[in-house]
């Protein structure tokens, strides 16, 4: 019987812990029947981890890669000098049709560069964008871009919104995602020139655009998608991560203070566990790189086994839901707004 599970190439050498965390996480996803896993990296290091676990009957294979991209290397140099890096080999597998998608907790810049130039973009997509799932009061909100593109034109942000809406629909089940533009005020006309021009494009698009949103409202959960450039988006998520960590430490300290605090902790334990799950980045595992011909997730360098398993699951769902097909259709539906502007911008270069 043919195996119809999505085939996900996993950079086994990526992240702070390498195979020690990546391999058991990938195996967990394979054991759960979520994907066929292709572990890419040093075959001896991977074999050492596999030997400690029962992998009989699991849809797991190994593809050797003799090199690893180090975190201090420039992406362009890594692509040129390390043709057999685990990231490059994983991208080659997707390009050649041997895998449907890939995940990596390694060098994010190298992953972005390799994926874009090796796998290629969905037709009509000018720039792939990184999206992430931001915890909110109601569930999660997709925000894009969060780091791939720091200098953008308005039509780039429109495409980010289009692609993030597809992500919200396929991954979060939002039937008609509500889209907002991150700015320094809710009123039309607020923001810099980029925000003002992007506002008009989003309003003229097929998206369910409701206007601007301010930073203080990001976590309210009133919108499904937030659009911004990669510079602003990266600042937002780094601030959110830092705030969540600080608040968690403060809360833990207060709950441990005194007898009544400990009693209160016991009474609120279930609520605290639900809150922890909502804030836990490992629930999703990675940030999708939208706009490529295959599924690609960039994972946190400190990802543990749970995060890697979640990343495999998300990449597999992205494939199974045919998200790229829907994304291509959505981009085509708004090409009249981006095509002429893209041509004009290219002529000015």
Automatic annotation (TrEMBL):
<dbReference type="GO" id="GO:0006633">
    <property type="term" value="P:fatty acid biosynthetic process"/>
</dbReference>
<keyword id="KW-0963">Cytoplasm</keyword>
<comment type="subunit">
    <text>Homodimer. Probably interacts with PlsY.</text>
</comment>
<comment type="pathway">
    <text>Lipid metabolism; phospholipid metabolism.</text>
</comment>
<dbReference type="InterPro" id="IPR012281">
    <property type="entry name" value="Phospholipid_synth_PlsX-like"/>
</dbReference>
<comment type="similarity">
    <text>Belongs to the PlsX family.</text>
</comment>
<dbReference type="Pfam" id="PF02504">
    <property type="entry name" value="FA_synthesis"/>
</dbReference>
<keyword id="KW-0444">Lipid biosynthesis</keyword>
<dbReference type="GO" id="GO:0043811">
    <property type="term" value="F:phosphate:acyl-[acyl carrier protein] acyltransferase activity"/>
</dbReference>
<dbReference type="GO" id="GO:0005737">
    <property type="term" value="C:cytoplasm"/>
</dbReference>
<protein>
    <recommendedName>
        <fullName>Phosphate acyltransferase</fullName>
        <ecNumber>2.3.1.274</ecNumber>
    </recommendedName>
</protein>
<dbReference type="InterPro" id="IPR003664">
    <property type="entry name" value="FA_synthesis"/>
</dbReference>
<dbReference type="GO" id="GO:0008654">
    <property type="term" value="P:phospholipid biosynthetic process"/>
</dbReference>
<comment type="function">
    <text>Catalyzes the reversible formation of acyl-phosphate (acyl-PO(4)) from acyl-[acyl-carrier-protein] (acyl-ACP). This enzyme utilizes acyl-ACP as fatty acyl donor, but not acyl-CoA.</text>
</comment>
<keyword id="KW-1208">Phospholipid metabolism</keyword>
<keyword id="KW-0594">Phospholipid biosynthesis</keyword>
<keyword id="KW-0443">Lipid metabolism</keyword>
<keyword id="KW-0808">Transferase</keyword>
